[in-house]
Protein: PAS domain-containing protein
Organism: Parapontixanthobacter aurantiacus
Amino acid sequence: MRPHYDPDNPPEVPDGISRSSMRDLPFALVITDPNLEDHPIIFVNRSFERITGYTAEMALGRNCRFLQGEETDEAARKRIREAIDAEKEITLDIVNYRANGEKFLNLLMIAPLRDDDGKVTHFLGIQSEHYEQATYAARASQLDAALREMQHRVKNHLAMLLSFIRLEARRSESAHSSFEVLANRVETLSLLYHDLSSGEQDGVTCVKLGAYVSRVCSTLNMLDGQRDVIVNIDAEAIEAKVEAASQIGLLVSELLTNALQHAFPDGERGTVVVRLWQNEDDCICLQVIDDGAGLPEDCNWPEEGNLGARIVRDLAYRLDADLSVDSSEDGTRVKIAIPADALQ
């Protein structure tokens, strides 16, 4: 028989994961313990409290189904139970209810967390609120279709990123760094979601790429918190379709995160420059330059490297882009030239 949740002696989150690093993440996050009776919640962050209206004290020790209600689809409940029993990832839409009784549509992603032996120790849940249907109805049908398509794409990207993170966490000595990288990747797509759903774009299917890239860089620089590293951004006003914008945003996230984490060891001062422009050959050029330590002599990045290198290669391939890397003791330059038609 499994032990019960004890509020006077709450279980710890998985080894290597810092509560403080998860508390202020920009998306709602829940960790549950399947080894305790009724699979209770053992951690929620502030975004969860904001979205649901339930404080941590109200949620801890309860099964996540307390968020469900009268209009929660039974088929969705069954899919969740089956995924947890099979220890598999799942992404789905489900109707949940806030503490005040108000219902909302929740894009829910659940993934198992495993120890070094491959045993599932906890489950991670990430929640993202859909915009209310009433808001959709008040706008044009074109916007409806665009938002639904955008949500579908964001959902697929987030599911892909969770799979990547699970692979990376198995290799990493500390899950803390993996969650920081996960936060950066998901934050990049969250910014895109916000830009499109805010209605501030000139076209509902297009993104103002310069403004989006600038926001990604500024946000990641703030999250990284390296005060001795200056990030300069020079991005032209270029428009791109949603799919291309999401891929370029992830490229910026990977390249900037890599520079901030590895170019300036031991807290050295430095500068990272992120540029986006359209050249005379009608290519959209993305360049990330740092004046840090440079790549190791025996490093053939991104042909060889960690998960981030694989993501960069894959995204460049999807955009049919040319990727070049120039590194020395004076720093590293990464340039990606994207055909203009790849943005359409």
User: Anything to note?
Assistant: The two ends are 57 Å apart (CA to CA). Residues 206-343 form a domain with the Heat Shock Protein 90 fold (CATH 3.30.565.10). The first strand starts at residue 28 and ends at 32.
